[in-house]
Structures are given as structure tokens and as C-alpha cells.
Specification:
Chains A, B: It comes from Cohnella lupini. Two copies of one chain form a homodimer. By secondary structure, chain A is of the alpha+beta class. Chain A has two domains: about 5-70, Arc Repressor Mutant, subunit A, CATH 1.10.10.10; about 75-230, Chorismate lyase-like (Chorismate lyase, 3-Layer(aba) Sandwich), CATH 3.40.1410.10. In chain A, about 30% of the residues lie in helices and about 35% in strands. Chain A has nine helices and ten strands. Chain A has helices at about 5-15, 30-35, 40-50, 85-90, 110-115, 145-150, 150-155, 160-170, 190-195, and strands spanning about 55-60, 65, 75, 95-105, 120-130, 135-145, 175-180, 200-210, 215-225, 225-234. The first copy, chain A, has a six-stranded antiparallel beta sheet with strand order 4-5-6-9-8-7. In chain A, a hairpin with a 2-residue loop joins strand 5 and strand 6. Chain A starts with a helix and ends with a strand. At the A-B interface, helix 5, strand 7, strand 8 and strand 10 of A face helix 2, helix 5, strand 7, strand 8 and strand 10 of B. Strand 7 (about 175-180) of chain A pairs antiparallel with strand 10 of chain B, so a sheet runs across the interface.
Chain lengths: ~230, ~230
């Protein structure tokens, strides 16, 4: 066994035994090199090995982080992407639980945001999105019946809503305008997500198709202990 | 007085008397047109008038919002801008209070993020940023002494740090990589900001100059009851 493999094994064992106290962050290359009395080159090989083993991941310019339970995800918000893509990019398996669909009249805000008729009806799709079985997002989508037809609830399929709109209706969702909010006392969350009281971020988005028409609204409460969010500002 | 001026006056009075119950949002154009028995064109003129009077502001695709106490701000995060600009764009007056500057050795994270030497020292600039005297952001900037020199604390001036770096050192901050976080229990906040227990968002940024060198780190706890944040995702 090479030196770097030995080191990688020691660290992997420590990760499995929850020995890293410092949040979810690994010590720096320099600190590890000093501890194991080897060059930083060797440490880098060991860390690369740990990444390949799925034990850690690297954030450019920030350091190495434990992939505890393999459940860490990251998203750069400038690029439009779905929750399905977020989960799949982390090599995790997505699921939908506690799915509810109901219909009601639009409120003034929705009429304004989606530029629809007061007489239209809205489908509300509520669900918890999971990654490898763990609840990571509570999501509420609001779609006009004039777009998805009155039998939406019967034909709805789990997974990406934007993908579904593409396949079934030929609607291509290509961008969104997102508002990011801190979660308030008055936000109502499903018991399952409140259970562990995780830090949450609230995303409110209007989704637009390739003709710049507003198509639907989404409210997503994202678990910030498992998903990290970045914005590149230029 | 024109019809639209009359309507604008009625609404302005109602705003001053806090008659709008529905959060901070104004009824839609359609609702207002029905209420005042005029065309939407006339309502739009009245709303434009209210914007010019500083009573309301418009968020594209979302609606009209009250500028209660004149203290509402909005920022689209894709574009790099300073807190000074955020405040000035809302025609408010900025201020700095509870300013503290101290010096310490860099930690491993800072060494990694700013690509600096372990022997360097870091200036920590902590302050509360105010808009028209109201505390809106608790801000912590971390700058290497190798960039600002050892007399930074003596020459520091209130206001925009990036502007200061530009004027005094010829360093042009043009972009940043920002992480957005929910505030955690363990985040330590100044008493003055915790007082009213406002919803907060935590922004962590590495700021880069026009040669793509990382220059400084900022931690900003932003009051989300007064400032709304948007991201355009494409």
C-alpha cells in the first residue's frame, strides 16, 4: 500500500467514526501534511483518493468537506437548473414523498405574476423532494389549468416538473426570476422537515419558457445543511 | 387635478394611515381599476406618480410594494454591487456605527480563500451599516495587511470599502463569489441587530479585483425584512 493510500485509509476511518469536530470541514492540506509528516503532494494524492471514494468533496478556493452520508450538494444559482439536476449532479437518487395536488382559484399575486385570467384555475402541487431517501426540499408549485389542462392531477408524474412540461406539453422552461428569503415564523412547513429543525432557505421563482412567457411559480424550502448555494456576481 | 392624481393622492393617504393590510404589497392594477372605476391605463399613471413620490416601488413581474418608512431596498445579486450602492439606489443615506477594527493571524480557511502567506496579518473590520439611521446589515470584512498596509486602522474611512480600496490603493473590486446561507443558532450577532429579531440572510463573499486576484472576504448579515434579494437564472 502506498503512503497516500495509507493516509487516505486513516482519514476515511476517522470520517466513518465521526472524529472530525470542526463542522463538516477537513483540516487544510498544510495541517494534514504536518500531521502525517509527508509532503503536500502526498496529501493531495490522499485527498484525491478520498474524493474518488466519495468520502469528501472539494470546493474551489475553500477546502475539503466531508460528504457525510454522501448527502452534500451544491448549486450555483446563476444557471437555471432543476432540483432533479441538483440531486443527480451529486450522484444521488431523487424521490418525491407526501405528494398532494389540489385546485383553487388564483389570488391577485398569481394573476399578476403569471399574467393570467381571473377565471383560470390553479393546480397546487406540494411535495417533499428526497435525495437517497432523505427529505431535502419542501416544494410547492403553482400552475394554471390553462397551461396543463384539467386532468393534470391524473397524469402527473414524480420528478422534475420542468422536464414533465417539456415532454408532455412541449413547454421549455429555460429561465427563472428567483427571490431568496430567510424563513419566517409564519412559514408553514411539513412536520417531517421541521423534525430536525434544519437551517432553511426559501426560494420563490417565476419560471419562464423560451418565449419569455411566465409559466409557473415555485416555492422551495431548501435544507441549507445539505445544500450549499453560490452566486457569481459580476 | 387629473383623475390619476386624485387616485394617487387617495392611495398615498391610505399608505400614510397604514390602511394596507396585505403585508407590504399593493392590490393589483386590475383590482385598483375596479375599485376606482377607471381604466388600467389611469391606474398605471397613478402608480407611476406614487413611485415618483417615493411611496411605492415596482418589482418587475411581481407587483407594487409599499416603501414603508422609505426603508425598502432591493438587489439583484447577479450584478456585483456594494452595500453603499444598495442604500444609495434607494435614495437613502448610509452610515456606519459600532465600528471596530482589530488585527489577528489568518486562519487556514482565509489562507486558502485569499491565497496568502501564513505570516501575513488580517485586519478585521466590523461594523453595522445603517440606512437613514436604521441598522440594516452587520458586516465583517477580512483584509490582509499585505494589501492595505499596517496603518489601515488609522486611515480607514466609513462607507464603501471597495471604493476606499479603489481611491487609496488603486485596487478595483469588480466581482465576487458569494455563498448564501441561512443564519444558524451559533452565529454571533450584535445586540442592536438582534433587538427586533428580524429575518436575516448571511452572505459570505470573496471579492476579486480586475486581475482576478482574491482581495478580501466579507460576511454580511442582511435584514431581509427591509432588503429583498433576487437572482436571475438563465
Amino acid at each position: 500500500m502506498n503512503k497516500y493510500e495509507e493516509i487516505s485509509k486513516v482519514i476515511a476511518d476517522e470520517i466513518d467514526r465521526n472524529l472530525f469536530a470542526e463542522g463538516d470541514k477537513l483540516p487544510t492540506e498544510k495541517t494534514l501534511a504536518a500531521r502525517f509528516q509527508v509532503s503536500r503532494e502526498t496529501i493531495r494524492k490522499a485527498l484525491k483518493n478520498l474524493i474518488e471514494l466519495g468520502k469528501i468533496y472539494n470546493i474551489q478556493g475553500s477546502g475539503y468537506y466531508l460528504r457525510r452520508n454522501g448527502l452534500h450538494m451544491a448549486s450555483t444559482l446563476n444557471k437555471f437548473s432543476s432540483i432533479t439536476e441538483l440531486i443527480q449532479n451529486a450522484n444521488l437518487t431523487e424521490g418525491d414523498i407526501e405528494v398532494q395536488i389540489f385546485k383553487r382559484k388564483p389570488n391577485d399575486e398569481e394573476i399578476g405574476m403569471l399574467n393570467i385570467n381571473k377565471q383560470d384555475s390553479m393546480f397546487i402541487l406540494e411535495r417533499i423532494r428526497t435525495a437517497n431517501g432523505e427529505s431535502i426540499v419542501y416544494s410547492r408549485n403553482i400552475l394554471p389549468q390553462s397551461i396543463v389542462g384539467q386532468d393534470f392531477a391524473e397524469y402527473y408524474e414524480p420528478g422534475s416538473l420542468s422536464k414533465y412540461l417539456e415532454l408532455k406539453y412541449g413547454i421549455y422552461i429555460v429561465e427563472s426570476l428567483m427571490e431568496i428569503q430567510a424563513v419566517r415564523e409564519e412559514d408553514v412547513l411539513p412536520y417531517r422537515l421541521k423534525l430536525s429543525d434544519p437551517p432553511l432557505l426559501k426560494f420563490i421563482q417565476v419560471h419562464y419558457d423560451d418565449k419569455a412567457n411566465p409559466i409557473y411559480i415555485s416555492y422551495d424550502y431548501m435544507r441549507n445543511d445539505l445544500i450549499r448555494f453560490y452566486v457569481r456576481r459580476t
